[in-house]
Amino acid sequence: MEAAPPLLEIDGLSIDAMLADGPVRLVDGVTLGLRAGEVLGLVGESGCGKSLLSYSILRLLAPGLRISGGDIRLEGRSLATLPERKIRAMRGNEISMIFQEPMTALNPVFTIGDQVAEVFRTHQRLSRPQARAKAVEALAAVGVPSPEIRVGQYPADLSGGMRQRVMIAMALACRPKILIADEPTTALDTTIQAQILELMRGLQRNFGTSIVFISHDLGVVAEVADHVAVLYCGRVVEEAPVAELFRNPRHPYTRGLMGAVPQPDAEDMPDVLHEIKGNVPRPGHLPGGCRFHPRCPVARDICRISDPPRVAVGAQHHVACWEAADAS
Amino acid sequence: MLSYVLKRLSHTLLVIVGISIVSFVFLQLSGDPVGLMLPQDATSQQIEDLRHKLGLDDPVVVQYLRFVGNALRGDLGRSLFSNEPVAALILERLPATVELAFFSMAFALVIALPIGIVSALKRGTLIDTASMVLALFGLSMPHFWLGIMMIMLFSVQLGWLPTSGRGSFAQIIMPAAAMGISMVALFARLTRSTLLEVLGQDYVRTARAKGLPEYIVIGKHALKNAMIPLVTMIGMEFGLLLGGAVIIETVFAWPGVGRLIVQAIMDRDYPVVQGAVMLLSMIFVIVNLLVDLAYGWLDPDVSLRRASK
Ligand SMILES: Nc1ncnc2c1ncn2[C@@H]1O[C@H](COP(=O)(O)OP(=O)(O)O)[C@@H](O)[C@H]1O
Ligand SMILES: [Mg+2]
């Protein structure tokens, strides 16, 4: 009883780093789907492969990294094998991206207006003045005050929150089907973070854009996502609708991440978090068996020997953990 | 931006005042012209009179101000050798020196920029290694030797180019190439390293994520940022070219300020040496000012940051 195929399908995707002494797997067989109008949250500690996964969708991986297996499909079309020219026409047009660091993501030597207008000039072949006018509109739409002045300013003249708004304006300029947001609020302070999240929610409602929202902070993901996938060491360890995940987290890692979310009732000591013990293992030095077992509070013998299978534990709720596998 | 320009202008003015003081001191140290102007057996009264007539018995400050006043009116004294005004001698030679510096720079950049860009885009490939080795080869050859080798090959052996002099385009090719080749390595390596650094920046990734074609990603977004250190280097090298053409001007009998200085030193023609050095220093300072202003235009951050300092 599968519903309509997702807008974006990531199917068994693996990404390798080509190092001098051979390839090292960084993302390992990730399968995910993004339905039209949905916000898919990707969460996991720093270094688990969230950014690589998101860059690979638009084939923006750095040199030395490559997709070594699996496929990515937009409305059934494979993106991994698309010619460069076609994927370029898609970037910023059908699928857009925004990044973590609004300080460095904009080019310091061109005006805001120029950088926003470029998108219109490239994808809609507009003339300079037309693109300029559209840039002003696009900035106004994301709540940049006095956009007709801002277009003439440089990134250095803007605050971090304003720059991220400019990035969002640029990304949504051509009304893409999908917006990939890689930790868009991580570099911002809390009040600005809340404003940007509110803006993204509003735009998502108005335009119906599907969003892949990435964060290391499960609390932030919970605020925007409909469906959440938890990544650990390049793999999806648990995935579920957001309410279901919070009600019934099955993977010890997910529960660990929730412990790291400040609880509303712990107001008097918001800094005391239940961090997950130990560190993320380095790629190429992963433990055998379940990758999480050295840090897992409930690890058993089998966890040290054998990789847990992915099992369904509810409607659209999957988890890869021996505890859940044995229970089902 | 305006306050940045004003600030930079006032700095330049200070440096020019400094240059004028150094030049004045140099003139003082070069000895008393009275000894050279009067016969050996002049009486102390005659010496005294001439010193008074030339104002040499005034306080040093008054003499300095008179020197500055004269210089501002374009009067840098007269050549001891030909008795012509120093300023006229220099100005007559200056266009040749500027012309040679300009062509050397153009020669270097036309070769270095493509090498640097291709090496950066194809880093680690054979093209990268080969072009960098070639560029280094140019750097390691002293330019007077290169100049002589060129004369032997292109003038003596092949008879394609005239050995010396100024007037036709054929005559500027060899001196410009001899000076330019040593800068090729410098600019090629700088272009390669800055472009590589810029290509790793987040805004380049943003430009690609927007779907811009690669020629705009590189030619616009990356290159304008890579231009910033390049422009600084171009300005500095240009200033050095103006002052440092002494050897090449001599090898190719190029009638520029460099050869004028060499000739004046050999003739012990102090006012000419001093005037030429002062003028070249000022040109160097002014070129640097222009470079800094260009820099402020390239990098909008700079004008704001520097002005607020
Ligand atoms: N260019 C690269 N070469 C080799 N390893 C890389 C490269 N880029 C990222 N990695 C590694 O891949 C892993 C995942 O990185 P990333 O996707 O940036 O993590 P996240 O975004 O979840 O913090 C990290 O261990 C990182 O060190
Ligand atoms: Mg990341």
The assembly state of the depicted protein chains is: heterodimer
Q: Which sheet architecture does the biggest sheet of chain A show?
A: 8 strands, mixed
What low-confidence regions of chain B span 5 or more consecutive residues with pLDDT below 50?
none
- Report the structural category of chain B: mainly alpha
Order of helices and strands of chain A: EEEHEEHEHHHHHEHEHEEHHHEEH
Transmembrane segments (chain B): 12-29, 100-121, 133-156, 168-188, 230-255, 275-298
Protein name (chain B): ABC transporter permease
Family (chain B): Belongs to the binding-protein-dependent transport system permease family. OppBC subfamily.
Subcellular location (chain B): Cell membrane
Q: How does this structure look, described?
A:
The complex is a heterodimer of chains A (328) and B (309). The radius of gyration of chain A is 21 Å and the shape is globular. Chain A starts with 7 loop residues before the first strand and ends with a helix. Chain A has helices spanning 50-57, 84-90, 102-105, 112-123, 128-141, 147-150, 160-172, 190-207, 218-224, 242-247, 252-259, 301-305, 322-327, and strands at residues 8-19, 22-34, 39-43, 65-74, 77-78, 95-98, 178-182, 210-215, 227-232, 235-241, 310-314, 317-320. Chain A has a domain at 104-175. In chain A, helix 4 runs parallel beside helix 7 (160-172), helix 5 (128-141) crosses helix 7 (160-172) and helix 7 packs parallel to helix 8. Chain A has 328 residues and is of the alpha/beta class. In chain A, the strands form 2 sheets. Chain A has an 8-stranded mixed β-sheet with strand order 6-7-8-3-9-10-12-11, sandwiched between helices. The longest helix of chain A is centred in the middle third of the chain and has 18 residues, at 190-207. Chain B has 309 residues and is mostly helical. Chain B has 2 domains: 2-72, no CATH class; 86-268 and 276-307, MetI-like (MetI-like fold, Orthogonal Bundle). In chain B, 80% of the residues lie in helices and 0% in strands. Chain B has 14 helices and no strands. Chain B has helices at residues 2-29, 33-37, 44-54, 60-72, 86-121, 126-139, 143-157, 169-199, 202-209, 214-244, 246-251, 257-266, 270-298, 300-308. In chain B, helix 1 (2-29) runs antiparallel to helix 13 (270-298), helix 7 (143-157) crosses helix 8 (169-199) and helix 10 runs antiparallel to helix 13. Chain B is flat and about 85 Å long. The two termini of chain B are 13 Å apart. The mean pLDDT of chain B is 83. The A-B interface holds A 58, 60, 88-93, 96-97, 99, 101, 104-110, 118-119, 122-123, 154, 156, 167, 170 and B 201-203, 205-213, 216, 220-221, 224-225, 228, 298-301, 304. Adenosine-5'-diphosphate is lined by residues 17, 26, 44, 46-52, 62, 64-65, 283 of chain A.
